[in-house]
TrEMBL record:
Cofactor(s) the record lists: Mg(2+); Zn(2+)
NCBIfam families linked: PRK00051.1
Summary of subunit composition and partner proteins: Homodimer.
Keyword Zinc: yes
Protein encoded by which gene: hisI
Entry's localization field: Cytoplasm
Positions of Zn(2+) binding: C75, C92, C99
Purpose of the protein: Catalyzes the hydrolysis of the adenine ring of phosphoribosyl-AMP.
Name this protein carries in UniProt: Phosphoribosyl-AMP cyclohydrolase
Binding-site residues for Mg(2+), renumbered to this chain: D74, D76, D78
Family: Belongs to the PRA-CH family. In the C-terminal section; belongs to the PRA-PH family.
Entry GO CC: cytoplasm
Organism lineage: Bacteria, Pseudomonadati, Thermodesulfobacteriota, Desulfuromonadia, Geobacterales
């Protein structure tokens, strides 16, 4: 039986969130044992925010939740890939479909941004 190894990074593991239908990487976040257990139990993605030092469910503020379709771990059992159905237009808090919209081109990082919602309106911060 395989056990997820939370010991290598101080109790956290990277979670790669991928669109179930087309394979697009939507985001990468961190999970601890509690958030992985919540994700497996609830069928929604839960994470641990290192900057805010708190648990959060993806979409709890924006409504852009993620339905878990499949969960995989790597050969070292210290990273997970979670394939999801993205509810709402975007996974990124910037309003972009994916958090990976900045590309290395001609010696510099270039934003290829196409926000699908206005974060200021959604998060009202």
């Amino acid at each position: 039986m395989i056990e997820i190894n939370f010991d290598k990074m101080g109790g956290l593991i990277p979670a790669v969130i991928q669109d179930y239908e087309n394979g697009e990487v939507l985001m990468v976040a961190f999970m601890d044992k509690k958030t992985l257990d919540l994700t497996l139990r609830d069928g929604k993605t839960w994470f641990f925010s290192r900057t805010r030092n708190k648990y959060w469910m993806k979409g709890e503020e924006s409504g852009n939740t993620q339905d878990v379709m499949e969960v995989l771990t790597d050969c070292d059992a210290d990273t997970v890939v979670i394939k999801v159905k993205q509810n709402g237009p975007a996974a990124c808090h910037t309003g972009n479909r994916s958090c990976f919209y900045v590309k290395w081109e001609d010696g510099q990082w270039v934003e290829h941004s196409n926000p699908l919602f206005n974060p200021a309106e959604v998060y009202k911060k």
